[in-house]
Amino acid sequence: MLDFDFWSPTYFSFGRGRESMTGELVKKFGGSRVLIHYGGASAVKSGLIDRVKKSLKDAGISFVELGGVQPNPRAELVYAGIDLAREHGVDFILAVGGGSVIDSAKAIAAGAPYNGDFWDMFCGVPMGENVLPVGVVLTIAAAGSEASNGCVITGTDCTKRVFSGPSDLNRPRFAILNPELTATLPPSQVANGGADIMAHIFERYFSKTKDVETTDRLCEGLLLALIETLPRAVKNPADYEASANIMWAGMLAHNNVVGVGRKQDWLSHRLEHELSAKYDVAHGAGLAVMFPAWMRYVMHYDTPRFARFARNVWGVVDTDDLTAANHGITKLVEFWSSLGLPKNFAELGAKREDIESMADGVAALGCEGMGSIMQFYKNDFIKIYELAADAK
Asked: How far apart are CA 334 and CA 76, in angstroms?
């Protein structure tokens, strides 16, 4: 196990009706003038935004609003949020939504006090200590951004970039997790969210770091819980108990408690970011296509690790490691397909002829040389994309 430091300061309020505590929690964490940031009309039509506003008013907290966050959040709306926050002297950003809304809120929170272009921080300029606090009312279990220190924004040139602060200042101060708020989600969103959660675990689990049995077991336990509960939630998003378990698993998968002390990978996410930036596909759907391709490409470099995954997560009984490893990947594809997730480029809506340009995009982001089980370069990116394109 590697040495590590771990700090996860987010306060969680979990359960039915907890959005009524929004004003109380904003005040607890120092907010007095709030920017409410949210996505589309569903948050308004459901009455959630009105409930949040009432809670803020009852706590004596003023607010302004900015809706319109899209999946794969855009820099243009971040700029608008920064201008609005500065104009109204906002001292707290409240994200009401899923990962895209939270990521956009984090970018606004880092950019509003910054004397420059917020995009600098996505291009290597360190984040300063002066960052507005962020709170979250979560409406979909997926990205885990409610507990992480990173965010992903699509730039004005359609480049998708990841930003993680040098400290944990951009982790939300609090997150309200009410599984009831996921009851009206389309099944496809539940499935996409589930794939995203599982992928966050995979990025940490598939590592060559030795003697990490504790976090290995945590990863495997979370995966087993998701395999049990995701089909129930996709069939019936109003299944509170299934949704509750998935929502908590989503947080645990990405606040890094299952990733400390080990080298992590994250190439599959970088490869998928190019897909979703180019085709505007759902992140979870893109991961469902990219991750099995990545697995088949790298499993020969650490076959016992993939055989362990097959046996401990999927119950595969093959005695030969290579056979077991292949069987485990097949089981994963079958599971994701049963949830309605795509298996290849054609089902995703991506084009094989774009592989070269997407590989160039991944390389341009400085991803050559990254990886845990092996180090990856542009030719590897191309081959993994080809496996994803041709998957059956």
From this structure: 38
Q: What are phi and psi of 194, to 5 degrees?
A: -65, -40
Burial class (CB in 10 A: 0-12, 13-18, 19+), 357: exposed
d(CA 246, CA 209): 27
Pairing of strands 174-177, 134-138: parallel
Q: What are phi and psi of 129, to 5 degrees?
A: -80, -20
pTM of the predicted model as reported, rounded to 2 decimal places: 0.94
Cα torsion through 110, 66, 243, 149, rounded to 10: 0
Q: Are 372 and 259 in contact (CB under 8 A)?
A: no
Per-residue pLDDT 10s for the chain (392 aa) are 999 999 889 999 999 999 999 999 999 999 999 999 999 888 898 999 999 999 999 999 999 999 999 988 999 999 999 999 999 999 999 999 999 999 999 999 999 999 999 988 888 787 777 899 999 999 999 999 999 988 889 887 766 566 555 457 789 999 999 999 999 999 999 999 999 999 999 999 999 999 999 999 999 999 999 999 999 999 999 999 999 999 999 999 999 999 999 999 999 999 999 999 899 899 999 999 999 999 999 999 999 999 999 999 999 998 899 999 999 999 999 999 999 999 999 999 999 999 999 999 999 988 999 999 999 999 999 999 999 999 99
| Length of the chain, in residues | 392
How far out from the chain centre does Cα 234 lie? 19
* Contact by Cβ (8 Å): 52, 61: no
In DSSP notation, 33-99 reads EEEEEE-STHHHHTTHHHHHHHHHHHTT-EEEEE--PPSS-BHHHHHHHHHHHHHTT--EEEEEESH
Closest CA to 114 of 81, 66, 147, 137: 81
